[in-house]
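[Q] Does anyone have a clean structure-token version of this?
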Amino acid sequence: MRAVLRTVDRVLLGLVGLVLLALGGAVLAVGFGAPAPSWWLHDGPHDVLLGDAERTRWRDAGWWWPAVIAVLAVLLLLALWWLVAVVRRRRLAEVLVDTGDGEGAVLRGRALEDVLAQEARRVDGVERAKARLTGRRHAPATRMRLLLAPHVDPGTALDDLTTRALTHARDSAHLAALPAEVRLHGVRHRAERVG
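[A] Here you go.
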């Protein structure tokens, strides 16, 4: 199902991109004086996008502006829904766990993310931690962001994270590997005043 959605997304984005490219290229070409294509709505570079007759055509109809606003609102909501769906899909929803009996089990991605973040917060000097699963169900990876206290050595914190949280998560989910991209940030502290 995900492969189908990904293909639909790519096809739709490609079509929208081609239409916008054709329209933009036509506007640019006509604006520079090239002859207008046969399907073009206007005659030349000095023609306006909406003439007086087109702008005032529906002015007296009480339904016109509410209909225009409703259609634009629906298009905006559809675009936002599509954007949220694409962004959410990048987060791994579930991980396949090999239970050894041939059946396997499914682990919720959010649960594994929460456990990774909690264990990372237990590492000495880690103020905050966030984890996000990416990759595929059978081969997950993680992206982590750690906020370190000023006194912490980043190498030591990264080593502790690798040997504790990441190893524990990999072993408990029976994963062959759990690649991780870790971003370390230091806590900014205010300068101390010397009296």
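[Q] Thanks! Anything notable?
[A] The chain has two domains: 1-49, 94-186.
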